[in-house]
Specification:
This protein is an alpha/beta fold and 416 residues long. Helix content is 29%, strand content 27%. The protein has eleven helices and 18 strands. The strands form three sheets. Strands 1, 2, 8, 9, 10, 11, 17 and 18 form an eight-stranded mixed beta sheet that branches. It has an eight-stranded mixed beta sheet with strand order 5-6-4-13-14-15-12-16. β14 and β15 (289-300) form a beta hairpin. The longest helix is centred in the last third of the chain and has 18 residues, at 366-383. The protein binds flavin-adenine dinucleotide. The site of flavin-adenine dinucleotide has 38 residues, from α2, β12 and α10.
């Protein structure tokens, strides 16, 4: 069923009785060409591009709960391509281009809003470093603008630039960046993949990976054994658990990240603002709530909830940047489990097991990557080798030393 303005009008006139379910709810078959574990943004996007770009439709996405309740539905929806390193920037630039056409591609409004992302800097040295990153972005074809403190103040009037805990020296602005509606991304990809013939099997937890020599034969699930020719893992915070089932010890740690949303306000923030020195970032949703967050909770966990010291830290950092923030009430907070890699960059590629493919290491930046990640993972699974855009995201780079350390934080996952 294609969505259109005409269809909307027609359904409104006949009492909304004609809508079909957005995706099918099939029982799993005995085997598939390709099984993707994880019905988050990345797993569902991979299924869509396997069907659309490679004609592979004998595909199942196995999800332990309902789709969209993992990190794809828990993030703060920031989409940007403001990286400086060659391994990262072309990949995220491709992702941003896919975002720009995504609603049309999926025939589903993902509410992508290019309202800009502004990273603040606080010292002359950091200003120089931002200039360098902005130049690198422009050399690779992305948009980037360097603002001084007055430019920041003009763009975001409520910011404390001079007398706050950390004075603001300027900022790096990417205007094509912005936010999107996270649930819609999961639902839009699910609907498009399902329409192409992919089985999206909810409430089907993978409990074991069955191998024969160096090949995967299939998976044990709460709905029985399901065979496959190729297996892709896209389980975000549960990556090390699934790796363990396959007999792989992976360079991933799981940490909790929290987010918060305030009561609704009239527009006060034009776009996303990140306050790196305070470990704080904020934007305003279409409903008017301020959506904000900060640093990782700092300990390993698989629980989707956070701790109070981090809540206090986020509120203090937010108040240092926006002195009026404490006048608002926080309506909700929640946590998600992050798959932190050693260098802060993702892994999309082959593994030492012949027909097992891995998509992981998204840290707290995987939402923006969803389209390109699905695109590249689908290519890797369909052809057996990486696309040039994900060639640098190899699993073995921690062994070979080819790290992509955008933050220059060294091999410490909790610092990226
Ligand atoms: C608070 C917070 C804020 C964030 N903010 C941003 C942001 O602003 N911008 C940005 O780019 N990124 C952000 N992120 C990161 C981003 O959300 C993630 O990197 C990304 O969503 C991970 O990919 P995914 O959507 O596929 O993950 P998920 O949605 O978590 O999908 C993985 C799925 O695998 C399923 N699964 C796990 N184990 C099994 C199993 N054994 N069997 C079957 N299914 C299984 C899970 O149930 C889950 O649905 C944020 C994350 C959090 C938590």
């Amino acid at each position: 069923m294609r969505y259109s303005a005409f269809g909307l009008l027609q359904e409104a006139l006949r009492g909304n009785r004609g809508w079909a379910p957005a995706w099918r709810d099939p029982a799993p078959k005995d085997r598939y060409d390709v099984i993707i574990v994880g019905g988050g943004g990345h797993g569902l996007a991979t299924a869509h591009y396997l069907a659309k770009n490679h004609g592979l439709t004998d595909v199942a996405v196995l999800e332990k709960g309902p789709i969209g309740l993992g990190n794809v539905g828990r993030n703060t929806t920031i989409v940007r391509a403001n990286y400086g390193l060659p391994g990262n920037e072309p990949f995220y630039a491709h992702s941003l281009k896919l975002w720009e056409g995504l609603s049309r591609d999926l025939n589903f409004n993902v509410m992508f809003s290019q309202r800009g992302v502004l990273n603040l800097c606080h010292t002359p040295a950091q200003y120089d470093q931002f200039a360098r990153r902005g130049n690198a972005m422009r050399l690779m074809g992305e948009d980037a603008e360097l603002l001084d403190a007055d430019g920041v103040k003009a763009l975001v009037p409520g910011i404390e630039t001079e007398d706050g805990r950390f004075p603001v020296a300027g900022g790096l602005l990417q205007r094509r960046a912005g936010t999107a509606r996270h649930d819609a991304v999961a639902w839009g990809y699910a609907r498009a993949a399902s329409a192409a013939g992919v089985d999206i099997v909810q409430h089907c937890e993978v409990t074991g990976i069955v191998r024969e020599g160096n090949r995967v034969k299939g998976v044990e699930t709460t709905r029985g054994f399901i065979g496959c020719d190729r297996l892709g893992l896209a389980v975000a915070g549960n990556t090390s658990r699934l790796g363990d089932m396959a007999g792989l010890r992976l360079p991933i740690e799981s940490h909790v990240l929290q987010a918060f949303v305030s009561e609704g306000l009239k527009p006060v923030l034009p776009g996303v603002v990140t306050y790196g020195i305070g470990h704080f970032y904020i934007s305003q949703s279409d409903k008017g709530g301020l959506v904000f967050g900060g640093d990782l909770d700092g300990y390993n966990s698989y629980a989707q909830r956070g701790n109070l010291p981090l809540v206090e830290h986020v509120m203090a950092a937010g108040t240092a940047l926006l002195p009026w923030l404490p006048r608002l009430r926080v309506l909700r907070s929640w946590g998600g489990v992050m798959d932190m890699s050693m260098d802060g960059s993702p892994i999309i590629g082959t593994t030492p097991i012949d027909n097992l493919y891995l998509n992981a290491g998204w840290c707290y930046g995987g939402f923006k990557a969803t389209p390109a990640s699905g695109w590249c993972f689908a290519h890797t699974i369909a052809t057996g080798s990486p696309h040039p855009l994900n060639a640098a995201f190899r699993l073995d780079r921690t062994m070979t030393g080819h790290l992509i350390d955008e933050e220059q934080a060294g091999p410490q996952p909790n610092l990226h």
